[in-house]
Amino acid sequence: MATPYLVDAPMRFSYELVTNQNLEKFQHEFKSLSEAEADPIGYWLKMKKAKGETKDSDEVVLELLVELNRKIDKLEKLIKGEEEKLLDLEINGLVEKINFTQFQLQNGDLTPKALYYGRAELKVYPQREIPIFFRAITNNLAEIEKIHHRDEQDWGSYFRARERVMIRERRK
To answer: What pTM value is reported for the model?
Structure first.
């Protein structure tokens, strides 16, 4: 097998082997994390954009206001004790390198061909944990099998940004 093209992209990563006993709870969390974007203010903004009612508005300011509203909602839930807890995954590790569809873990404890569920702390704005189903290729190399569309776009953007950093460092 040829070595894939990967760039340094350190990030925290929690994961666990998928079994018949835990598949359903992983699928539930995966789905719930996608629905987190379907909040009322986000939906309202999406509809306004679709109707063209935001064309005279500053997109960056709108996005920042929406994110501020989400943070306030999150604080309210935290104060009320209504905050949703993420699953405790068995292994906490680090991703060392990534490309568009693969990543390499620092520790080599994956079982080749096994399916895993994980959450990566993606360093994009807004910073968040993204859920991923992935299959081990080797003991430390994995291929993404299932990821939400928006998360896939952000993953790709992060990969390209890290690649640009790597290219700049080579030029020095």
So the answer is: 0.80
